[in-house]
């Protein structure tokens, strides 16, 4: 015979409770349920040492007192000598009524008749004479040391002999068990913890925005910051402030420009929440800015178009812009992705090329493209050295790649996991990890699988089906796992990321791609790849921090 114990591994306050709990589980019949340390809160707080639900017998409230238990002049004591302390013998009776009232007030019990319920005192180290009795406690309600070997039998016997109440069936026991587990208990929720961490990160990022107030009269700045330092949020905040006028500044005509289509979509969505008159005049990629002026689009594989022909055409087109089409301020996020030839058209689009505002946000360690570019004007450098957006566990994995000192101000979170596999098996293993995170309780809309080599088949299919713009809208609109590549996801994040290293690690700028990939998760990160590839891309220190 074995009863079910709830919880499975209780924390007992005393050795006496541990002993009684073990005997109850061992001796009560199959189908019985034993609750340990059950608390009820109402007019008074009650804690029941054990509550036994015994089918075809009854419900028993068990109060346990260890050591020496005795009664002197009507007052009950536990312990001897200086350790002796009083206790209230009526506690078991009050607990019995608390259990009964809680059960009968539950809507799920409505229509059921009252069950048989008793209370007993169990003293595993104290014996009681057969003729013991005292007001409020009869001999049959006290079970001592000699009765521990047949504790289950005695509980069943006293229920059978008791009067009042209906003997519970197995179905009654199942219903009472459900009610006593609580109504709609919250379950373990990884998303709840992530949401709390996100709220704190948002608050810290807003505090960091004070930097913009300090520098609002500095027309040309470069904000350099590590991954997770809040650069993108600051760029967005600055675009809002300049467009509507802030801190003594007149409203500006602003262009908010970036490289990534996905990041541009994020900016548009956030700024659509702002009144139309207070939005930037342009929000989008460098290429989209050119198209707005009449420049053609080009093939993604035609590097000469992007490096030379497009910026040259845009420079000519910028020269022909009317004053009302020009900008007072240009804000560039992920500026490390901009080629040398891209900066001239941006400066030429300013109403005043000499004094017009240019604000650049960059992280040189995320320079994942071969091109190298710097604005041909002097910018006042500002440094963000706090990581706010990632958990400490995630930030510590990419800290050796950050290239600068970084203070970790994120919250603690789940440990980062590394799944060692052969490169040719990395995609399949990453797919398995997606299923695992969903089983953990992560919302699919908060999960992303990123590759560093060849694009995942799902990404290819979605890009072909929806086009580039439609594909990136699924990052925000979709309710499914997002499949992407590290080259397109700078500035973007999701709570849970599976980083799939499906390459050999020998390509140029492999370290930068690894840095970007490791920093896209805010809360839960799983790295899938060959340990040799991880070392080739990130070095021994990153491998060590990933547990290799």
Automatic annotation (TrEMBL):
A Pfam family cross-referenced in the UniProt record is NERD
Could you tell me what this protein is called?
A: NERD domain-containing protein
User: Which residues does the UniProt record annotate as the domain NERD?
Assistant: 15-122
The record's section on SUPFAM superfamilies has:
P-loop containing nucleoside triphosphate hydrolases (SSF52540)
Q: Which organism is it from?
A: bioreactor metagenome
């Amino acid at each position: 015979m074995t009863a079910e114990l709830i919880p499975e591994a209780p924390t007992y306050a005393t050795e006496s409770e541990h002993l009684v709990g073990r005997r109850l589980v061992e001796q009560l019949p199959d189908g019985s349920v034993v609750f340990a340390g059950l608390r009820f809160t109402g007019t008074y707080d009650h804690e029941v040492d054990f509550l036994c639900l015994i089918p075809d017998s009854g419900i028993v409230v068990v109060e346990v007192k260890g050591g020496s238990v005795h009664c002197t002049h009507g007052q009950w004591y536990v312990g001897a000598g200086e350790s002796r302390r009083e206790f209230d013998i009526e506690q078991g009776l009050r607990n019995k009524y608390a259990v009964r009232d809680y059960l009968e007030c539950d809507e799920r019990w409505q229509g059921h008749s009252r069950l048989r319920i008793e209370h007993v005192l169990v003293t595993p180290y104290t014996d009681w004479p057969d003729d013991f009795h005292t007001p409020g406690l009869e001999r049959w309600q006290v079970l001592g040391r000699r009765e521990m070997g047949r504790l289950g039998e005695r509980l069943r016997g006293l229920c059978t002999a008791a009067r009042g109440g209906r003997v519970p069936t197995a179905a009654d026991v199942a219903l009472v068990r459900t009610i006593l587990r609580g109504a709609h208990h919250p379950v373990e929720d990884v998303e709840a913890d992530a949401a709390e961490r996100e709220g704190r990160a948002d608050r810290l990022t807003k505090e960091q925005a004070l930097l913009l107030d300090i520098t609002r009269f500095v027309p040309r700045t470069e904000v350099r910051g590590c991954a997770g330092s809040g650069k993108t949020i600051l760029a967005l905040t600055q675009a809002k402030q300049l467009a509507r006028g802030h801190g003594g500044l007149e409203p500006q005509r602003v262009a908010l420009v970036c490289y990534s289509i996905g990041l541009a979509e994020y900016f548009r969505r956030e700024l659509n929440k702002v009144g139309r008159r207070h939005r930037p005049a342009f929000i989008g990629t460098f290429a989209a800015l050119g198209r707005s002026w009449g420049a053609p689009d080009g093939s993604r594989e035609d590097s000469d178009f992007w490096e030379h022909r497009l910026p040259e055409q845009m420079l000519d087109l910028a020269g022909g812009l009317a004053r009302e089409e020009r900008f007072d301020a240009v804000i560039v996020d992920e500026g490390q992705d901009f080629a040398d030839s891209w900066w001239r058209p941006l400066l030429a689009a300013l109403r005043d090329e000499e004094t017009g505002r240019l604000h650049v946000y960059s992280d040189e360690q995320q320079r994942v493209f071969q091109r190298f570019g710097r604005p041909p004007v002097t910018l006042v450098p500002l440094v963000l050295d706090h990581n706010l957006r990632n958990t400490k566990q995630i930030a510590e994995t990419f800290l050796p790649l950050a290239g600068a000192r970084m203070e970790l101000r994120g919250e603690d979170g789940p440990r980062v996991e590394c799944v060692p596999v052969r490169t040719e098996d990395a995609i399949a293993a990453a797919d398995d990890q997606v299923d695992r995170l969903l089983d953990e309780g992560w919302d699919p809309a908060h999960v992303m699988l990123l590759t560093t080599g060849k694009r995942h088949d799902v990404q290819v299919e979605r890009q072909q089906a929806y086009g580039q713009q439609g594909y990136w809208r699924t990052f925000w609109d979709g309710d499914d796992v997002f499949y992407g590549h590290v080259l397109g996801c700078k500035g973007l994040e999701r709570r849970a990321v599976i980083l799939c290293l499906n390459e050999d690690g020998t390509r140029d700028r492999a370290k930068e791609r690894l840095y970007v990939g490791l920093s896209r998760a805010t809360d839960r990160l799983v790295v899938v790849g060959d340990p040799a590839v991880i070392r080739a891309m990130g070095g021994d220190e990153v491998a060590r921090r990933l547990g290799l």
